[in-house]
Structure prediction request, 81 residues.
Amino acid sequence: MLESEARQAAEMLRKEAKVPQGAPLTKAVKRYIEIAKQAPDGKWLARDFLAWVVHFSEDAAFWEVVLDDATGKLLRTDRSR
Prediction:
């Protein structure tokens, strides 16, 4: 996925990621991230993803929309407090 495609995908997923319409997209960075999930047997499994972290900001608040580079799927959204 190219940076322009990551930006476009993040804009399309804005509502699902709960990013306000007025918050402008400020940057997109490709990096490796780790996502952990609990398996049905109670063990924790971690998986590494090559992902695009797309940053939106408005005033002092920010949202980071994390997209899987291979599929464009929304992996998570991190936001400031």
Q: What stands out?
A: The chain is about 10% helix and 55% strand.
